[in-house]
Amino acid sequence: MxxxxxxxxxxxxxxxxxxxxxxxxxxxxxxxxDGKFVYGASCERCGTTKLAxxxxxxxxxxxxxxxxxxxxxxGDITRADLRVELFRRETK
Length: 92
Prior knowledge:
By secondary structure, this protein is α+β, with helices and mostly antiparallel strands. Helix content is 29%, strand content 33%. It contains three helices and four strands, in the order ααββββα. The protein has a four-stranded antiparallel beta sheet with strand order 1-2-3-4, with no helix packed on it. The longest helix has 12 residues.
């Protein structure tokens, strides 16, 4: 069972990214490193950052994410739980 307080206090931008639309990425960097292509991005809504590395053949070889404080939730909280909270806020 989700911790209701944790979901009810969750930041609005985090809710939209996690529950409904996914991240709103915009490019922050692009460069070559050791023959690979490295692409950096940041989410306009929640501030999550991503660093994706691609091989010289265009295959994704690794992805690193850095989440802002408060983004990660514990327990058994599902995307459906987060959508219910988002809809609850929007119907007030």
